Amino acid sequence: MVDYKELLRLTGMGYSLRQTAASVGHSHHTVKNVLELAEKHGVEWPIDEDVTNAELEKLFYPERRTVGRHYAKPDYAYIHKELSKKGVTLTLLWQEYCERAHANGETPYMSTQFGDKFTKGEKYVTEIGKWCGERGINYTRYCDDMTFSGGKAVLNAKEITQLVSRALWKMGFKLNMKKTTLIGSSQRQQVTGIVVNEKAQISSKQRREIRQEIYYCEKYGVSQSLFFKGADITPEKYINSLLGRISFALQIDPADVKMHEYFKVAKKLKSEVCGEK
After folding, report:
1. Helix 28-40 and helix 17-24: axis angle, to 10°?
2. Looking at the whole model, is its pTM more than 0.90?
3. For the segment 177-221, what is each residue's pLDDT rounded down to a tens digit?
4. What's the CA gap between 108 and 70, in Å, rounded?
């Protein structure tokens, strides 16, 4: 299933069709089609948190069955073979798998499910998870990114690096040491762009930017604030982008009191901007 909420969030933040397609792992045509359907049905970002991707798909594609679906089974042997080729990634193979599934009238797994199922089907990678579990080490994986965390008593960077290197070698891969990083508790721990030291949240820089933008928009108004910044964007697109960034922060940390306050202010500003037209 297409991650409709993420697709709408990215375009709401001003991302181009090409950038959005690359991020959600679908073709330019699919993104364009979804945006046209969203406009037709009056759906725009931000979307209420209670709305699910399944509900959006039912709205956009009522002809598709939502129960009793037959999910296309990934060809793990083929995936493993293709991954040994230069330039081939799990994301590219997932896109290929989705196109094949749609062509056969089947439902493809989402990218995270696809990655998880591939992981479970891979003996050596599964062994890494088992090894970590036995030692009380937290192990997570997103596509080809692996993260290991835990206390000093259980974490041994050299031992973990050797373990992963051996497992990848058996699968025909090599650990990229340039992308292998050890981050201490006193340093900023950032995984896939999200800071995770004490709890998952956006970076302090992003928080400052949002706080500053809310302040200037409240004080001078959206249009005047954009004029001072010299930003070449319409007030409507800008406020949608701001709402999108705040919503993203709340997706990561729903208990963020400040972001909830900013969200209410941004919603009020949006109604004022629309009322100016």
Report:
1. 110
2. no
3. 887 877 776 666 666 566 666 667 788 888 899 999 999 999 999
4. 9
Best CA proximity match to 248, nearest among 213, 217, 202, 209? 202
- In angstroms, the CA 252 to CA 136 distance is 25
Q: How far apart are CA 228 and CA 239, in angstroms?
A: 15
Query: E-assigned strands of the chain?
Result: 138-142, 145-149, 190-191, 194-195
Distance, in Å, from the CA atom of 234 to the CA atom of 140, rounded to the nearest integer, reads 40
User: How many angstroms separate the Cα of 108 from the Cα of each of 5, 47, 88, 168?
Assistant: 17, 24, 20, 27
Q: Please state, in angstroms and rounded to a whole number, the distance separating the CA atoms of residues 272 and 266.
A: 10
Calpha distance 246→46 (Å, rounded): 9
How many Å apart are CA 85 and CA 109, to the nearest integer? 23
| 224 DSSP 8-state letter | H
